[in-house]
Amino acid sequence: MKFGVREICNVVFKAKNATKIGNSTFKAGQPVLYIDTAKTSTIEGAATTVYAQGGRGNTRLIAWEGEKTLTFTVEDALLSPIGFSVLSGAGLFNDAEQDVHVHTTSTAMVINGKIDLSFVLGETEKIDSSATIFVSETEEDGSLTGTLIEDATVALDGKSLTVDPEHNDKTVLVDFYITKKASNAMELQIDAENFAGYYYVEASTLFRDQATGRDLPAEITLPNVKIQSNFTFSMAATGDPSTFTFTMDAFPGYTYFNKTKKVLCVMQVIDDSEATSAELESVMKHPGDGESI
Question: Is the predicted pLDDT of residue 202 greater than 50, yes or no?
């Protein structure tokens, strides 16, 4: 039996041990992350070969192989907060009882000694009066003049600033912070101490049988992978959108169903005709279906 492979993998990451991400605690074996929006997935094996050489021409006589490695790479088109935490080891903060401070800039006009910023604030949001606020005059094209308005204070309504009326009719750029409930925001904290962890990974794809043309389910299990903490975000206004690459180093581990032998990877191709067949019912009756035309 020969196969062709031209299908992406759907991948699930399961916790090796009890794992806490944000407000959620995952038990050992519990799925932490599903990837069903992958663009590419690649398994790459490598080994080191050394040789005994000698004789005329110093030819190779015997080979020894070792240091076998296996790398599984998944390039995802989309990324969730938990996915980023799994990829980078970042902490995920989402505490409904606390507030977060969100940086905001807005261009407005001084009218009657007031700078109204309500149009960039939600119904329950207010300007953070405890943070530094900078108000800078601008040119007609929006560029900064370098002139600061230093007497700006937050009004009682929390949605506007008051300044000296001498600045009336001036266009200004306001640099300030908004206080938001953390329940409305996902805060990812990348520090120098935490890295991506170890997971039990299962991937599902399809292998096509050359003889029959049927797509057969294929399951790939990597019982012990360490996700590399390297990542790159490309933010650009042109070209293809950024993708997010999970690169995993496979280590020997036990599968759930065999505790007698550690493996790097297990691949299963399931020749199940029921799983790969489809019953089609015609939406337009044809002769022979018990209907006359």
Answer: yes
The structure tokens listed for 150 are: 């230093």
pTM for this prediction: 0.79
B/e letters for 74-112, b = 16+ CB within 10 Å, e = fewer, are bbbeebebbbbbbbbbbbbbbeeeeebeeebeeebebee
- Out of 1-5, 184-188, 259-263, which region has the weakest mean confidence (pLDDT)? 184-188
Alpha helices in 24-107 (DSSP H): 81-88
pLDDT of 275 over the 60 cut: no
d(CA 258, CA 74): 26
What residues have CB less than 8 Å from 74, skipping those under 6 apart? 9, 11, 35, 38, 40, 41, 203, 245, 246, 248
Query: Phi, psi at residue 34, to the nearest 5°?
Result: -110, 135
Amino acid code (one letter) for 293: I
Are 62 and 72 contacting, i.e. CB atoms less than 8 angstroms apart?
no
- Over residues 249-260, the mean pLDDT reads 94
Question: Which tens digits make up the pLDDT trace of 62-89?
Answer: 999 999 999 999 999 998 888 888 888 8
Handedness of CA 109, 113, 116, 117 (dihedral sign): positive
Q: Within the chain, where are the H helices? A: 81-88, 273-276
Q: How many CB atoms lie within 10 A of CB 264?
A: 19
Please provide the distance, in angstroms rounded to a whole number, between the alpha carbons at the two ends of the chain. Answer: 44
